[in-house]
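Predict the holo structure. Ligand: iron/sulfur cluster.
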Amino acid sequence: MNPAVPEIPGDSPLKAAQAPAEQAAVTPAVAPWPNPLAHLQIPFRAVDYEVKGYHLEVTVAPGEVVAVATQLDKEGLALDTITGVDWMAEGQMEVVYDYFHLAKPLRVVVRTRIPRDKPEIDTISGVFPGANWHERETHDFFGIKFLGHPDLTPFLLPEDATYHPLRKDFVA
Amino acid sequence: MTEKADFLTGDVAAGQPPRETFVLNLGPQHPATHGVLRVKMTMDGEYIVRAEPVCGYIHRMQEKMGENRTYAQFLPNTSRIDYLSAMTYTHAFVGAVERAAKIPVPPRAEYIRVITSELNRISSHLVWWGAFLLDLGGFTPLLYAFDDREKILDLLEAITGARLTYCYYRFGGLCNDVDDSFIKGTREFVAHMRPRLKMYRGLVTENIIFRKRLEGIGPISQEMCRKYGATGPVIRGSGVSYDVRRVEPYSAYPEFDFEIPTFPGGDSMARYLVRMEEMVQSLRIIEQALDKLPAGPVMADKVPRVLKLPAGDYCYAVEAARGRFAVRIVSDNKEIPYRVKLRTPSLSNLSLFEEASKGMLLPDALALMGSLDLVIPDIDR
Amino acid sequence: MEAPEDNSQLLKDCSPYVKFAKLDELLALGRANSLWPLTFGLACCAIEMMAAGASRFDLARFGAEVFRPSPRQADVMIVAGTVNKKMAAAIKTLYDQMPEPKWVIAMGNCAISGGPFVFPGQYAVIEGVDKLFPVDVFIPGCPPRPEALIEGLLKLEEKLTGKRRWPVVKPE
Ligand code: SF4
């Protein structure tokens, strides 16, 4: 350990130790704006932020989620969350991936639908390690199998749980 | 003492537990885990080979309940997810519904929301401060912290009627206007809190034992934060000035002048300093909001009694005390949501613990865990 | 055998200084005045339990401030928060590990009945800790105020000694 612990100078440690100011450069989130991800080969739709709360959305085939995640990762986006929606009437499960940008007001929603009777999709935990827990949780709640996931044991449910409570046909 | 054991991390990276290891079970009832988190630790002596958090010991079906109750009935639930910053959590849910139903919120209500949210943020950080120092072995700071926190609770109790699990925000505004005694009391509190924060600095922040316990401990890089989706003081302690109040401004926040405290260190000390500085900034916001507080109603008129949102999904994100909290409501045009997803900051913040704690000493790992500021029901929901 | 000496006068003389009681009552008095709760925070209610122990409410006034992290050193368990099925086994073990005599306070609606988390089809919470072990005092509230917790401890004292040590404060 360094024996000379540096002083925290001044009255407010913020003034002295702050990282170079890059805060002011944020543009407000107005609805029609140039799509910052237009150069990617992903067919994003612009959404009215004031109503929906996100900027871009895209529906992709189940096989493409990993490729999309890789591209968004390169763009410097972070994974917000992964979740499922059970569309029982249509016999489908929707998997929703939320991403956000760390410096720009930019929220991206990636959706895909898989058949309800064979809910399987590739894991993106190889791209975003943070996806690990979100996918485990989605597996708990909906029984969606994430292929290639390192550990799909119950996360929030008891260790021996075999039920998937957020499926619409679940009865306790 | 603080360096990582190199001989160990090398082997761990190769996927081989080196030498003889044993499993240490921490929790689910353990004073250092702040609730019912369980961590399964594979140890080599005092060094951690693998620390795997096991969650779910306080899973309370919040998302299932969202599909069982009307919007108004679910609202009190949101304040019980992260009970320490209940205001911001109700704000996110209320905001999502207002956004979808296109309910305009009067400016006075937005200002009061900002004031109460920031008061709540300070009280949350105070609990963290006391509890964190308790983890590190100092009992007295807790008493100071709760002393100041009670002052905030008095103010909030007078207008909301609750001490902890507020349900003050309603769809379209607030359930109750503030009175002059609240405004006066809040001004007095701001004046009282500034010197107290200076005193905390002298009392704890500059204490050499405390600093040696935190500096360089539990480094988290910017890249790790991004990959795991960590937000709040964790990412700001790694030098990224990400704050939902700035990046996706909501409510009345664009009208105030405040800084986003960032510290580049990435260690536990940086996260500590971020939170201490955030309290100063919150006081600034409160003061400005009190100065500019507009007159007028605090509730939009003609909010329908029974809310039905148009089909589709709606998101709303806020900066809670622990980071980005986002609500997603999927509606199918009924009185009851089709799906409610709650994206909580503590889950993402904890998910990096396994990687960050590799090769650390056990007591250092507990300092790291404390500096993440976990609320367990926020992880398990 | 000699007739027993008449010591009634002696007893009368020293009665201002010496009290006679059954051993049980003495022990109960000692226990009631130094309850050692188990540090056991589960959820929101635990924060109010902390508040009760901290500056303003100062549980030390009633001798119950020694929160013990180990069940083997505690004699009252304050169940402050929601107990779910995954946790139930652990909490039962904790109860079993506490030495006799032991008491349980169920603090908050969750511990009493499952509180706000009970609905048809619920799959996780235990609807009241009295399903797991006997409970002595129930403190309603969501969360109960620290004053209510203190009142609950006084009720427990009353249960132990048969007497109330402190006056009841009537609301004005
Ligand atoms: S009773 Fe209410 S405050 Fe207490 S743990 Fe349950 S939900 Fe939280």
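The two ends of chain C are 64 Å apart (CA to CA). The beta strands of chain C are 37-38, 76-80, 103-107, 137-139.
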